[in-house]
Amino acid sequence: MEAVEAEIFYAAAQAAEWVRSLASQRHGALVCENVAVLGAGRKEVTWPHWVLKNLYGPLGLMFGKFPEGEGNPPAPVTFIPVRVAVRPRDPRFLRDTPELAVTVANSADDGRDVLSGLPHDWTEIKQWAHNLLPKQ
Q: Across the chain, which distance is largest between two alpha carbons, in Å?
């Protein structure tokens, strides 16, 4: 499971960097990249999705999570969409994480390396993100 999560995280982070590179260009607000994760479901994308939201939300990127067979209509494969945030509206998708909603509403890409200062091992990155879970 850890290896699958790590690969999903890596692929989605690459997609996020691609979206980031286009965001400031003409029509950049319309850029969206979908990372299809064949053979995976909700449990495999949950942690990578949480980590990515917390790393890239402050820079103005949003991530979705659509497990295969869920939704209306049901997703044909599990995928994680990555897109530029619509700051006035997207915080409503984050109502279960109000601090992250405020962060996205006030986000700006300052060009930083989001992985700077983080460990390189997925298990340690996941532990970092575990500390960001909302208090119950």
A: 42
Enter the tokens of residue 128. 């970092």
Count CB atoms within 10 A of the CB of residue 105: 17
Closest by CA position to 54, among listed 111, 136, 132: 132
Full residue range of the structural domain in which residue 58 is found:
2-114
Q: How confident is the model at residue 88 (pLDDT cuts 50, 70, 90)?
A: confident
Q: What is the pLDDT of residues 20-35, one digit of tens each?
A: 999 999 999 999 999 9
Categorize the per-residue pLDDT at 132 as very low, low, confident or very high, splitting at 50, 70 and 90.
very high
Is there a domain that residue 19 lies in? yes
Q: Closest Cα to residue 78, out of 45, 49, 111, 107? A: 45
